Amino acid sequence: MSVDAATVRRIAHLARIAVTEAEVPHLQGELNAMLAFVEQLSEVNVDGVEPMTSVTPMEMKMRPDVVNDGEIADAVVGNAPDTVNHFFVVPKVVE
Fold it and tell me: Which terminus, N or C, of the chain has the lesser number of Cβ atoms within 10 Å?
């Protein structure tokens, strides 16, 4: 796949990047090099290769999915000037 100058301008427009006409050929070359690298990666045989979450073998740490208040409600509202039942009290702004 090859990127032409019109496609470079369109990508720049969609990305909201100001590109001068002098920069278009350089960017065209850069994008074509990136696409060539991606095409080269697609040629690699990955049959039997397990997906990894890290370069070192490890399991994801899981915690129980339970709803709680974090057990730090007093610390959260500790510096508030006024609270009621662990809620911030704010002045009324709408009549």
Answer: C
Q: Which residue intervals of 1-95 are DSSP H helices?
A: 5-14, 24-41, 73-76
Tell me the CA distances in angstroms from 70 to 12, 26, 38, 77, one per residue in order: 45, 53, 45, 13
Question: Domain limits of the chain?
Answer: 5-41
- 74-90 pLDDT, tens per residue? 888 989 999 998 899 99
User: How are the residues of the chain apportioned to helix, strand and coil, as percentages rounded to the nearest 5?
Assistant: 35, 5, 60
What is the DSSP annotation of 14-29?
A: HTT----TTTHHHHHH
The Cα–Cα gap between 93 and 20 comes to 50
Which amino acid, residue 7? T
Prediction pTM value: 0.51
